[in-house]
Structures are given as C-alpha cells and as structure tokens.
Amino acid sequence: MPKPEPEKLSADEARVEALRVVAEDHFPYLATLDADQPRLRPVSPVKTDGFTVYVANLKSYGKTAEIEANPKVELCYLDKGHDQVRITAVAEVLKERETLESIWNENPLLRQY
Question: What residue stretches are annotated with the Pyridoxamine 5'-phosphate oxidase N-terminal domain (predicted)?
Fold first, then answer.
C-alpha cells in the first residue's frame, strides 16, 4: 500500500484547515506528564480563541497538578477524515477571576461543579 501524501497547502490554507479541524473536534486529547509517566485523556474545551484553548478542570483532578509541575502539554484534535491538528504548548492554570467568571457565565454546564 502506498504511503499517503499530504495535500500541499499554503500557510494561510493550512491555518484555515487547522482551525476547521479544531472547531469540528469537540473532545481533543490532552497529553501531560505525571512525573515520568505520560498521561493522555479526552477533554472538553470550554472556550477556544484561535489556537488558544481553555479546558475546565477541578483543582482536585490529577491533570491540574501535572500541569503545575510541568506545563508542557499537547492537545491533539482529530476530524472524521482523520486529519489531525496537534497544538504543542505551555499550559497555565488560570487564577484570573475575570477570565474564570467569563468562562463560567458562558458555560451553564459548569455550574454543576
């Protein structure tokens, strides 16, 4: 079987395509590191602004401590056609009240926590 060849895109086309994949996948996978053990789990972003992604999380969840200990993360988005976008980033645990309240108010499902 021949190796698939990726479609050649300009930088602008690649950005548009990547944003499409990000918009379509509602449950990307977040990779963190727990000491020397990789951890991967689906997450549900509560706000996306381009390639800036906000994921709601309780302080008691393991990924919060993992991000505080090592903020290097990767998010992997996958669409139905198996196109994927990987966002390699340095995450931060937000503590800014104004941003947290804005996200809280825009997402009624968060109120159950």
Answer: 20-105
